[in-house]
Amino acid sequence: MSELITTIFFLILSVVTGGVLVVFLEKKNQATFIKLSLAFSGGFLLAIAFIHFLPELYAEQHTSIGVWVLVGFLVQLFLEYFSGGIEHGHIHAHANKKIPYGMLISLSIHSFIEGIPLAGSGAHEHANTHEHLIGNHDNSLLLGIILHQLPVAIALMTLLRQSLIKSTTSWILLISFGLMTPLGLIFGKLIPMDSAIPFMDILLALVVGMFLHISTTIIFETNENHRFNLAKLTAILLGVGLSMGLI
């Protein structure tokens, strides 16, 4: 129980920290910080997908696992149609004081889904006696989510403020978004671990597909400023290096 509470605490803290940073960062520094932190998290997400999760998912000989990774990729593509790409730092604010419900719902669905596999932490066996995958690298999954949630929270809070939405309302919406991943985690705890169907591995494959879409989009986005591209490349490599250190 204490481990669950700690995980939820850090998940919510990453989002709240993003909101607090918006208050203290200047607009110019804000945009740069979002892009570089997204590049760092993008490199980390891409690396853990290839180094940690895909090899183990395929090692379990799930013949359909590639299908579920592809489904996750397409799900994220669909969600970003409504989110406007805020997961990549794209902020399209309109000073109309209107709450962007479509974007918030899209982000919430994404966060809820990626929180579910965290519930596999500490699980060790399926009914078929195979070791459960999530428990092996739950720390890298949690860290990947936290590293991505932080810049997304900054982008979301920035958009809400630029849309001239009341500060109190903005914080309520941000914290509501921050609760989605913990809710996914709690929901995941209700999924039977001893089922003949490897639900957690399927959900992890979905999340890996979503990670691949987000990370590749971040990495392959171009920028005219070559100096910034160097900084972005450095941030990506640092993210990859961090994932290597978790092996």
Description of the molecule:
By secondary structure, the chain is mostly helical. 72% of the residues lie in helices and 0% in strands. The model is unreliable at 122-136 (pLDDT under 50). The longest helix has 33 residues, at 27-59.
Query: What is the structural class?
Result: mainly alpha
- Strand tally, please? 0
Relative strand content: under 5%
* Biggest β-sheet description: none
Head-to-tail CA distance between termini: 26 Å
Task: Report Rg.
Answer: 18 Å
State the shape.
globular
The averaged pLDDT comes out at 84
Number of helices: 9
Residue windows where pLDDT falls under 50 for at least 5 positions: 122-136
Q: What are the secondary-structure elements, in order, as H or E?
A: HHHHHHHHH
Helix residue percentage? over 70%
